Amino acid sequence: MFKKMIAAAGAKSPWIYHINTGSCNGCDIELVAVLTPRYDAERFGFKLAGTPRHADIVVVSGPVTSQSKERLIRTLEQVPEPKVVVTLGSCPKSGNVFKGSYSIECPVDKYTHVDVSIAGCTPKPEAIIEGLYTAAQILKEKRREMK
Amino acid sequence: MSSFFQIIENIVKAMIFPGLLYATAGGLLLAGLDRKIIARMQRRVGPPVLQPTYDFLKLCGKETIVPHVANKPVFLAAPFVGYVSLVVMMLLIPIGGYSAFSGKADLIVILYLLTIPAVAMIVGGSASGSPFAGIGISREMVTMMAYELPLIIVFLSVAKLVGGDSMNFSLQDITAWQEQNGPVIFSLSMIPAAIAMLLIIPAEVGMQPFDVAEAETEICEGPLVEYSGFPLGMFKLGTAVRIFVMTSLFTSLFLGGITSGIHIGWTVCGVYVGDLLVRGLIHFAICAVITLLCMTFIHAITARLKIEHLFKFYWTVVAGLSLISLILVWIGV
Q1: What count of other Cβ atoms lies within 10 Å of the Cβ of residue B102?
Q2: Does any CB of chain A come closer than 8 Å to the CB of residue B266?
């Protein structure tokens, strides 16, 4: 029973850690807009954590520049299990307008397993909320599988 | 046979009421109410009242990572030490005129116990070996020094008022005195001390304008930066219980004896369960109102102070208010 309660609570209190890998700041602003009173993601229990150790959901934005690749991998390693990786915007998925650049090492799924991918340049706050909500459900499933 | 019942009674006191279970449930509910009402004040829906409970349960299910530079036993033991000292404090505070264990100098014991959660955070943070934690620790120590002086003066003035010629540090006696003479807050000389105590509570708990030590947006929750999983959950639980303990302390020091007239006959094993239930609920309601007054409203309308401003504020304004009370009580107003 206790295990069921923990798994259920996983979907109700997902803490977000946001890492910017050379994003243009557009997606970052939209993510913060989701947490403001207008969209109020806190009603689902979302909270922006300051450190990867407290995180459940890692939100990656930006096209993974060569400089930030090492940092991205190291940050993802520091997040305790179960964790869910979400890519925000088109850049981490396809490179977007930066595709073909010598300093870009996208997509993110070369380095880690991506659970949810929110597309758009920039995605609408509604889309971000839906993506994060899906991520929270995946988190619950992952917790259930963990023994 | 009677000693056997005594042991059972003591276990019930420590584990259920007013110990572990009551303190934890009350603390989590108060923390949830705080978050919900802040959300309503900002015109948003806000998290459910049970959100801190969900947070704790989720953290129970997370992996616990111990950094390789950390001192493992100290790192893992610190949250539990802080939490246990808070629960022990709850046993000493009278709830509706009833305290589990009482002694001659409860207030002094409470004064010592109050420092333990903060010290546990300092020790745990320094064991983690993170530079963010280092900054958090130094700020936590300064905060502790800042609120401790006015808190001691508040305790002294209440003890002097109740004791008359000498000082009376027993919380049981303070409650008994208030049952006869009315709550302490209604005597004119104690109003500055009550205001000072209301300003001390948010610093002790680490709430918004005074949360310099755990500044989330600035130093990533300071001492908690390397914690994850269950130990982090224990720290969060400790913060929630600390809200309840501090508001309970305010209730018993300044608003004691309000529930003394309530009697509902309903006894189990010679204990007035009906009384306890009603008084426990009323006590919780009063604590919720105090949480609103001194934490939620201030949190919703202020931004974080700098550490030097915090120190100055506590050693001038708050200490001044509590000193006025002490002097007035000494003169006998």
Answers
A1: 16
A2: no
The domain containing residue A85 runs over which residues?
2-145
Judge contact between A96 and A115, C-beta under 8 A: no
Number of folded domains that form chain A: 1
CB contact under 8 A, A81 and B43: no
Span B282-299, pLDDT tens digits: 777 887 788 777 888 888
**pLDDT, tens digit (0-9, with 9 covering 90-100), for B48-65:** 888 999 999 888 888 888
**Interface probe with B: pick from A2, A47, A54, most Cβ of B within 10 Å:** A54
Computed on alpha carbons and rounded to an integer, the radius of gyration of chain B in Å comes to 20
Sequence-separated (6 or more) residues with CB below 8 Å from residue B186:
none
User: Quick one: pLDDT at residue B163?
Assistant: 80
Residue A97's CATH number: 3.40.50.12280
Tell me if A10 and B61 make a contact (CB, 8 A cut-off): yes
Strand partners, A61: A20, A88
Q: Give the number of domains in chain B.
A: 1
* Closest to A5 measured CA to CA, from B61, B49, B52: B61
Averaged over B240-267, what is the pLDDT?
A: 77
Nearest CB to B45: which of A7, A43, A56? A43
Q: Which residue of B has its CA nearest to A2?
A: B57
Find the residue in B nearest to A83 (Cα). Answer: B62
Domain that holds residue B122: 2-331
Q: Do A53 and B216 touch (CB under 8 A)?
A: no
Length reported for chain A: 147
Does the structure show a pLDDT above 80 at B96? no
Which pLDDT does position B267 carry in this prediction?
61
Instruction: List, in sequence order, every beta strand (DSSP E) within A92-143.
Output: 116-118
Candidates B45, B4, B59; CA nearest to B238 is B59
Q: Looking at CA atoms only, how far is residue A138 from chain B in angstroms? A: 14
- DSSP code at position A97: G
- B134 has a chain A CB within 8 A of its CB: no
What is the pTM (predicted TM-score) of this model? 0.87
